[in-house]
From TrEMBL:
<feature type="transmembrane region" description="Helical">
    <location>
        <begin position="365"/>
        <end position="384"/>
    </location>
</feature>
<dbReference type="GO" id="GO:0005886">
    <property type="term" value="C:plasma membrane"/>
</dbReference>
<protein>
    <recommendedName>
        <fullName>Divalent metal cation transporter</fullName>
    </recommendedName>
</protein>
<dbReference type="Pfam" id="PF01566">
    <property type="entry name" value="Nramp"/>
</dbReference>
<dbReference type="GO" id="GO:0034755">
    <property type="term" value="P:iron ion transmembrane transport"/>
</dbReference>
<feature type="transmembrane region" description="Helical">
    <location>
        <begin position="222"/>
        <end position="244"/>
    </location>
</feature>
<dbReference type="InterPro" id="IPR001046">
    <property type="entry name" value="NRAMP_fam"/>
</dbReference>
<keyword id="KW-0812">Transmembrane</keyword>
<feature type="transmembrane region" description="Helical">
    <location>
        <begin position="274"/>
        <end position="296"/>
    </location>
</feature>
<keyword id="KW-0472">Membrane</keyword>
<feature type="transmembrane region" description="Helical">
    <location>
        <begin position="330"/>
        <end position="353"/>
    </location>
</feature>
<feature type="transmembrane region" description="Helical">
    <location>
        <begin position="181"/>
        <end position="201"/>
    </location>
</feature>
<dbReference type="GO" id="GO:0005384">
    <property type="term" value="F:manganese ion transmembrane transporter activity"/>
</dbReference>
<feature type="transmembrane region" description="Helical">
    <location>
        <begin position="37"/>
        <end position="60"/>
    </location>
</feature>
<feature type="transmembrane region" description="Helical">
    <location>
        <begin position="110"/>
        <end position="131"/>
    </location>
</feature>
<feature type="transmembrane region" description="Helical">
    <location>
        <begin position="81"/>
        <end position="98"/>
    </location>
</feature>
<dbReference type="GO" id="GO:0015086">
    <property type="term" value="F:cadmium ion transmembrane transporter activity"/>
</dbReference>
Amino acid sequence: MTPKERLNALAGAAFLMATSAVGPGFLTQTAVFTEQLLASFAFVILASIILDVGAQVNIWRIIAVAEKRGQDIANDVFPGLGYLVAFFVVLGGLAFNIGNLAGGGLGVNALFGFDPVTGAVMTSIICITIFLFRRANMAMDKVVRYLGALMILLTGYVMIVSQPPYQEAVLRTVAPLELDILAIITIVGGTVGGYITFAGGHRLLDAGITGKENLRYVTNTAVGGIITASVMRYLLFLAILGVVTAGSSLDPENPTASAFQIAAGEIGFRMFGLILWAAGITSVIGAAYTSVTFLASFHSSIDTFRNYWVIGFIVFSTSIFAVVGEPVTLLVLAGAFNGLILPLTLGSILLAAHNRKIVGSYNHPLWLTIFGFIIVVLTAYLGVRTLIISIPQLF
């Protein structure tokens, strides 16, 4: 691999993880918390970055030294555990992929006025076209990089015109007036929960960037992915903060769209449509690609014909959305289980980190292990809490 090819693969992995996190739910979640916590949400973002980095660096490093996918490592820790992990990751990936397609459809609707289902089908066709290329991984890397950069630039523009209180935001980043622990853990789950934390790690594995000799690149890329997603969140937070501190109320039906429209008028609304579409399509790519890497453990032919399986995953998700619409029950259930995926996957990775049969002569830093187990406990608590709250909503 040439230095240029390695750099492209590293950038692609970072942006694949980041854009997988920056989905339609990410946009709405950020708007809702900003309106609730105002400038103090800056502290939530900072705290979540620290926890996100702890989770992601642990997982990516062990994937690199074990040279195996997350579910295969889990199977080595405890036979059958990896299949359980794969089941939950794929279930969550499917459910949220339907939501991502819905977001893509709504983005097209905001841009051109097309029916959201038509917009979702158009989004799906573009994704399928990407995976029809012979070098689909390279095409995927470029698409997520360019669209990720586009989302950051457009959000940055809206942030400037909304004129947020920058000094207050900086102050509250370290001295919040209100501390919301559940908001922190919720943001962590939305950034590195479910399939998202494995998206870039599995991409590096496919690119052959593994082993102890590449740990520096792996660690830097893991941190880079979190920083990229967090830059997008902070810009979005500032853009919305400028609107709400000016006295405007957000539309509860679509808080982010209303914030962009209030800040920048009709142009802002169209920009929101483009950002929502870009968030939707990049998240569809990330969810489909990563979910199929988890399915690969069930049969070798899935890896052999991976691109066709990714296409099938996208087609299946689109069909459900087109026929049924957004399945609220499935999303509620998947969201509840998704909260339990991170502690399950991170916990198994941490157990593998000190197993010589899995990592060989590699010595995993003790502080990373301790930090990782703290994250496991915190996210497990939220996952159980979310499950208890969500299941009654299904009946």
